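Morning. Coffee machine broken again, so started the prediction first thing and wrote up yesterday's gels while waiting. Chain of 357 residues, entered below exactly as on the submission form.
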Amino acid sequence: MVSSTACTAPAATTPAAGPPASDAAAASTATRSPAPRRLLDQLRDALRSCHYSLRTEQAYVHWTKAFIRFHGLRHPATMAGPEVAAFLCHLAAERGLSVSSHRQALSALLFLYGKVLGQSLPWMDEIGRPVPKRRLPVVLSPAEVAAVLARLDGTYRLLGELLYGTGLRITEALQLRVKDVDFAQRAILVRAGKGGKDRVVMLPAALEAPLRDQLRAVHAVWAEDAAAGRAGVQLPDALERKYPRAGASWAWFWVFPQGRHSADPRSGVVRRHHLVPGSFQRAFARALQAAGVAKPATPHTLRHSFATHLLQSGSDIRTVQELLGHADVATTMIYTHVLRLGGFAVQSPLDRLAPAR
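Came back before lunch.
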């Protein structure tokens, strides 16, 4: 997510000045100024001008709506610090919101007041920010990973193997383009990952043949869309204006496209999008249950398992940091704590007593 301090939101729409009173003819024909844009539309404009992701935009709009509803549909411009604090207290105390969601709600409101309403008031710096608690990640053993992957079928099996084999986040995997898979260099290019950063990960040898099969099947889908004159896939940022025909090219097509067309949530253009995370998350949950794995695992657990198993096999932590795309090695260090589970390999005094039962 781009920092909110790195951009300036568009100014709110204000009515244009009327014609001079002495000009009767102009006054009679002057058109009425357009109505100011709604607050939520101004918020969306500001987020897009700062290049925030669609998911962040949806989250910030959600929390702004919740804030307005909590205060009886009052306009945020008529409220300030006490109302924001009361709303955040409600989320934490009554709704039991997690620290990460609490911080997201606060960020949404600070963006609303600072970038949309243009208010820079002392109370914005005085609002307390909840401190996130470092939790040990859930990690599957290699046997558990194999058992879960064996119970996934077709595209979901390939997607699960890709997450475990490369450490990609699920959104990074679903947004892969054909051009990002480099069989010659045995590499996968991750474009604009978390924090807008690019990186390169390995292409597992075990996935080369399945990925080639996937691309052959996907090429038929692309050719069908091209023959029907369908709109090309969505392109990032301003590339669609700079290269208007690139979206219809094979190189930019999704590796994991949806089976149907749908309207783009921002432009309204009907086109083919990539698979959405929810469908794979549900398939993964079913596979986890079928495998009898009693851990609160999600698709992101495959990324945790990838990192942990690399460290267990002797990989350098800096290398793992680069593969995961972490900005700070301290984030990657959490996996070293997982490796030390079991009492740091210290023998329990109980084991030195009488022989085991």
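The first strand starts at residue 181 and ends at 182. Going to sketch it on the whiteboard this afternoon.
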